[in-house]
Amino acid sequence: MYQPPQFRDDSRAAQHALIRAYPLGLLVTAGAGGLTANPIPFLLDDSGSHGVLRAHLARANPQGQDLVAAEECLVVFQGPQGYVTPSWYASKREHGRVVPTWNYATVHAWGRPRVIEDADWLRRQIADLTALREAPRTEPWAVADAPEPFVTAQVRGIIGIEISITRTEGKWKMSQNRPEADRHGVVAGLRADGEADLAGLVAERSGL
Taking the CB of residue 56, how many other CB atoms lie within 10 A of it? Predict the structure, then answer.
């Protein structure tokens, strides 16, 4: 990905935090039919030099065949993002030489996928993913709440994916290239538009 130095972040902690906060990754593979991409929720653990991603997808999904043969795949995680109008810039009022842009945070992770058919692994995967997402709820749902024959049938309909990450790239494009007065304007404008998460990242990443 295009990486101007002011937007690049190689921190493993920052990258992993974004993946955990926005776990729906776009899984990209290349196969006989060309490029394929599917959005899939991932779990991340910290083992290995860059971490390991775990997920599952429908057995009927043709991307599974690409994964069996793939030497490498890419998973793209997208964090907060949003349009930035030049109207928020102090420099618009000073000289007018400004253009719109887009602020965003993203992490790209590469690795060699392993397809897993083991039923125990698959049950653990869906149980772990469910428990993580249900934890904040007052009455969390668990896989065990569903009838056992139904769960068994569902497990037969999926395959597992484990990706040992070999390299990552992180990019937080958060107006760091703008003058301080412009950055303050972006933060105020985003907050006024109800984009509090993105405004907070702009403030954090641009030192405000």
Answer: 21
User: What values do phi and psi take at 199, rounded to 5?
Assistant: -60, -40
3-state secondary structure at position 197? helix
Domains annotated on the chain, with CATH: 5-203 (2.30.110.10)
Closest by Cα among 11, 21, 1 to 205: 11
Residue in 200, 138, 141 with CA at minimum distance from that of residue 175: 200
Q: What is the pTM of this model?
A: 0.93
Alpha-carbon span 149 to 42, nearest angstrom: 25
Buried b (16+ CB within 10 A) or exposed e, 15-46: bbebbeebbebebbbeeeeeebebebebbbee
Place 17 in a pLDDT band, splitting at 50, 70 and 90: very high
Q: What is the pLDDT of residues 83-141, one digit of tens each?
A: 999 999 988 888 988 899 999 999 999 999 999 999 999 999 999 999 999 999 999 99
Long-range residue pairs from 117-121, CB within 8 A, at least 24 positions apart, any chain: 117/159, 117/160, 118/160, 119/155, 119/156, 121/160
